[in-house]
Amino acid sequence: MKPADLLRLLALSAIWGASFLFMRLAVPEMGALNTAFFRVLFGAAGLLLLLAILRVKWRFQGKLHATMLLGAINSGLPFVLFSLAAKVLPAGYSAILNGTAPLMGVVIGALFFGDTLTSRKVGGVILGLAGVAVLTRTGPVDFDTATVLGALACLLATSCYGLASFLTKRWITDRGGLDSKLVACGSQLGAVALLLPFFAVMAVLEDGPAAPLHAGIGTWFALLALGFVCSALAYILFFRLIADIGPVKSLTVTFLIPLFGVLWGWLFLQEQLSWAYAAGGALIGMALLLVLMPARAGAGGNKQKIDGKPSAS
């Protein structure tokens, strides 16, 4: 890997790791739904601006509806779930749990898409769940109902990522493919379309307008960073990485996001560090190695490759 590619990989990991920090900053004042809505709104705006600057032709080849539905699954729902988790979980917790997306993909692929479930993948899923248990049971946050619900929200979010990877292959790749920038932009528009009605309903409620209208500048900065940096800019870096080093090597970002998520939470939110971060994160990291490591030639029979897109936090 060239130094420039390594720098882009580290930058992308740092940006996506920072998304959990920004959610922790925005959610207490803005609320989970508003945080998710403005994130996808600003992300869509940034990507539309990018398409205009690059003069990308608006040719979805009949796949606009598919990309928008993918966005509802891959951005709209997960961003709401991670925002809900941000109410009770430290940024480091959510960043580590975000790494379970490939593990959820293994389960979903085996259950609904006929993917081959090898003993190595089963071992990876079990090891990953053990890491989740270690983190939630022994971490610095009390193990109570709120912690469990927050962890479940994160796992549901990563399940959405896993499902979206298979649907991307079925709806986009297997139908001739599409410019990845158009897929990203269409998906953010779909996430906006999903969350807009709920945002509008909240806006007419008695306390609905209070959060967006009276949020402080720090909250709006966090929302802008979530949309323009953690979504739009991150996609630019990710597309460049795939072009330069390929999708498999680009997946190493999955291993680095938790490190930056824990680091930013400790530096800027004074979140308490614990050996549970290392133990739980190491178990999930080993699980990812088992699941993502390419099989030896001739081993494992027929396999269905999960799309190279990592979880966009």
Poorly predicted tracts of residues: 298-309
Major beta-sheet overview: none
Strand content: under 5%
Q: Give the overall average pLDDT.
A: 87
Question: Could you walk me through the main structural features you see in this protein, from its secondary elements to its overall organization?
Answer:
Helices cover 76% and strands 0% of the residues. The chain is mostly helical and 313 residues long. The two termini are 24 Å apart.
Care to give the gist of this entry?
It contains 12 helices and no strands. It is mainly α. The longest helix is centred in the C-terminal third of the chain and has 34 residues.
Q: What descriptive keywords fit this protein?
A:
single chain; 313 residues; mainly alpha; 12 helices; 76% helix
Secondary structure layout:
Blueprint: H1 3-30, H2 32-54, H3 64-85, H4 91-98, H5 101-112, H6 119-138, H7 145-171, H8 180-204, H9 210-214, H10 217-250, H11 253-269, H12 275-292
Helix pairs in contact: 1-2, 1-4, 1-10, 1-11, 2-3, 2-8, 2-10, 3-7, 3-8, 4-7, 4-11, 4-12, 5-6, 5-7, 6-12, 11-12
